[in-house]
Amino acid sequence: MIFTALGLSLGSSASLYLLGKLLLGLPTLVFFAIEISLVFLLFSISFEKIKRCFIKSELKLPCFDLRSVLQPKPQRILPFAFLIALIVNIFSFLLLSVREPHGGWDAWAIWNMRARFIFRSGEHWRNAFSSAMAWSHIDYPLLIPSLVTRSWAYVGDETTLVPATLAAVFTFSTLGFLVSSLSVLSGKKQGSIAGLLLLSSPVFIKFGASQCADIPLGFFILSTIVLLTYRDIYNYNSLRKNYTLTILAGFMTGFAASTKNEGMLFLVAVSTAQILLLPFANTKKEYRSQLKQVCLFLLGLLPLLGLLLYFKGNIAPSSEFLDSQNLKNVFSRISDFSRYIVIVKEFSKQLGYYVAILGACLLFLGFKLEKQKLAGITTALLTIFLMLLGYACVYLITPYDLSWHLVSSLDRLLIQLWPVSVFTCFLVIRIRHKEMNLTVSQSIESRPT
Amino acid sequence: MRFFSKLGMGLIIGYSFFESFQLFKELTSTKFLRIDLITQHDKRYHEIRKALPQNTTVGYISSLSDPKNILSVDDITHEVQEYYLAQYALSPVVLERGKDYSFVVGNFYRPDIKIETDKNLTIIKDYGNGVLLLKNNLK
Predict the structure, then answer these.
(1) A-B C-beta contacts closer than 8 Å
(2) Is A92–B20 a contact, with Cβ atoms under 8 angstroms apart?
(3) Fewer CB in a 10 Å sphere around the end CB: N or C, chain B?
């Protein structure tokens, strides 16, 4: 849950900064005072609970105990291998960050550029959305630039360490979230293998270090699906329904939408997936409960959606992508069969790698679909499918050169979905072993009351 | 544990190690090391940034502003990159291509291309490395 808290705090502080400093025009000092007061308030509210957790040793991190990892026992091979791969990748990340301290093209031309404008121009920050800068995707939401600017304001200097550190936090939190959530939901072995698999994709580390927004978006997508899956498993095993996780998942979806335009596609996809699954409820009572879950999910994302809509409607100019569209052009593109072939070819080429790897994992490691995980897996798969369908539709009607657009962006779009795809795959992977790890249902049953 | 599971885990560990060390090797090889272009440009525009009026829009011309100087696709890519880098370095000043503003930033990064003189533009200061601050006399 430490990674949920991290995602929540990063997203909240960025949104608060956007609301307080930029939209309401609060002076920096006032904003800091508000933020620090909120931290103290939240800490004092949860202090008793944290103290109780520590005293009763309820707070157990699901990952690794370094001493046990370093013991040369056969069952420690996986965590040990993961640790080595992690260290090597941390060094690679550092090298990449030193080599390109301002990040890759997208980072400096979009995200860090916007952060520079906001930080340097003070009250004239809206200049960042001048029509002369339309090439810089000025319609993109401001979660990442807000985080960078806010940290620069705290540090008092426009250092490249800030965006690089944020990139590291998002990249390795995605990994941590994947490993820890799978360790809890499926078993430590699954967690370690999934982590190794994510680290085996060099593009994940490369895109992470390049400070592009696709890795933070991937983090929020993963967070949403993990929380929804955890909720579904909890609700399956317990008489009392959990609604807190649903609201948190709504928040995470809101943060995803505030990170990049593709996040809005995710918002639509994950909401649609949950609505589409409503008719499959077994009883009327279950249907009502699921409907309540969907409503609470939408309620959770509502504040951020409101902020985003305000930004889109009042600050950001309309999207260059939409501006250059008209019905006649869209229709002619949709009716052009050759475009479908180009899209299918490129998707097969790039998606093939990921599908082959996950397929091999399922084949070699074995799989079993547990009933308690069915709802979570279905929601995740449906969301991923709707996202891919959405990407394909965007390519179909793109006003840019189709081949260029596909080659220059599809790899980044797929990396947004890679962590959540690994998570979903490893929910069904069941390593054939006599002693299986505790599943979450058993954990819930054995939890002290 | 069955043979296939062991084999699968071994393959994943091997593949992950291979890719991780491959990336690390690639990054540590001298061939891959290069100087950061963005920092170079930040330094190149450092002085002119101080001279420009803040939070305004200024014009931007470059070695390849005149289409007849563009000879290849690489030229176009390079021109776009130079413009974006200049904007990144000079923000929060907005750069708009052309000379329709009182102040114009000149980025003459290609010394091999001779620029035709414009009688309406006066050089205020030459900052070196092809960076010039110009004044449009008509504005």
Answers:
(1) 131
(2) yes
(3) C
- The complex scores an ipTM of 0.89
The rounded distance, in Å, linking the Cα atoms of B100 and B67 is 18
Taking contacts as CB-CB distances below 8 angstroms, the residues of chain B near A363 are: 4, 8
* Nearest-angstrom CA–CA distance, A365 and A413: 28
pLDDT over 90 at A165, yes or no: yes
**Each residue of A385-414: pLDDT tens digit?**
999 999 999 999 999 899 999 999 999 999
- pLDDT score for A224: 96
Q: Are residues B7 and B49 in the same domain?
A: no
Of residues A92, A130, A360, nearest to B57 (C-beta): A130
d(CA A125, CA A132): 15
Give A-chain residues touching B96 at CB under 8 angstroms: 132
Which of B5, B16, B20 minimises the CB distance to A364? B5
Q: Which residues of A332-346 are buried (b: 16+ CB within 10 A; e: fewer)?
A: ebeeeeebeeebeeb
Q: Which amino acid is at A143?
A: L
Q: Is B15 on the interface with A (CB under 8 A)?
A: yes
Residue A449, pLDDT > 50, answer: no
How many domains does chain B fold into? 2
Q: Mutate one of B94, B96, B99, B100 to test the A interface: name it (highest A CB count within 10 A).
A: B94
DSSP A28-82: HHHHHHHHHHHHHHHHHHHHHHHHHHHHTT----SS--HHHHTS--GGGHHHHHH
Cα separation, A201 vs B15, in Å, equals 10
Determine, for residues B8 and A361 on separate chains, whether the beta-carbon distance falls below 8 Å.
Answer: yes
What's the gap in Å between the CA of B49 and the closest CA on chain A? 12
Each residue's pLDDT tens digit, B110-129: 877 777 777 788 999 999 88
Suggest the residue from B19, B77, B79 to mutate for an interface test with chain A (most A CBs closer than 10 A).
B19
Q: How close, in Å, is residue B139 to chain A by CA atoms? A: 19
Same domain for B88 and B45, yes or no, is yes
| Mutate: best of B1, B17, B23, B32, partner A, most A CBs <10 A | B23
Q: Is B122 found in the same domain as B100?
A: yes
Q: What is the pLDDT of residue A56?
A: 59
Instruction: Enter the pTM of the model.
Output: 0.90
Q: Min CA distance, B95 vs chain A (Å)?
A: 7
Instruction: State the Cα–Cα distance between residues A166 and A396, nearest whole angstrom.
Output: 34
- B72 inside 8 A of chain A by CB: no
Q: How sure is the predictor about A158, in pLDDT bands with cuts at 50, 70 and 90?
A: very high
Examine the domain organization and report whether B62 and B16 are in the same domain.
no
Residues B28 and B42 in one domain: no
A316-320, A418-422, A444-448, B20-24: range with lowest mean pLDDT: A444-448
Q: Do B46 and B89 have their domain in common?
A: yes
Q: Residue B12 sits in which domain range?
A: 2-32
Beta strands in A165-291 (DSSP E): none
- In this structure, the answer to whether residues B22 and B67 fall within a common structural domain is no
